[in-house]
Specification:
Length: about 130
């Protein structure tokens, strides 16, 4: 667990042995962007941002979950569009870069309601050895 801004902690839940073929720097960039967005979405409230990894058939799923207000359903298709932002000082590029990085690695990224409230961003990537 790592302390973040305003009492936000980052919790990592990942089993050993999950392997994806990816540019580590680019994947790190995508996950950091999602984690920073999650911490900001919590709007100064203390709590956990959870980074979780799990296996699915032929895939590895990475999730970033927060306890913020979530993403309204009518915005979920728009938030990955370049220059679309809901933040006063946002550029609208962060989630567009996340989507580009994930797609360049043969994966997909989606957003949904997190169980118990907040948002969950899911990245699904091919696991090592799958085609």
């Amino acid at each position: 667990m790592t302390a973040g801004p305003a009492g936000v902690s980052v919790v990592v839940e990942a089993p050993n042995g999950l392997v994806v073929r990816a540019d580590a720097g680019q994947l790190r960039r995508a996950l950091l962007n999602l984690a920073r967005n999650a911490a900001a979405a919590m709007q100064g409230r203390a709590g956990d941002v959870v980074l979780a990894a799990s296996a699915a058939p032929g895939r590895v799923r990475l999730e970033v979950r927060d306890r913020g207000p979530g993403v309204p359903a009518d915005l979920r298709d728009k938030i990955f569009t370049p220059f679309f932002t809901t933040r006063e000082k946002g550029t609208g590029l962060g989630l567009a870069f996340v989507r580009e990085i994930v797609r360049d690695h043969g994966g997909d990224v989606t957003v949904a309601d997190a169980p118990g409230g907040g948002a969950v961003f899911r990245i699904e990537l091919p696991s090592e050895g799958s085609s």
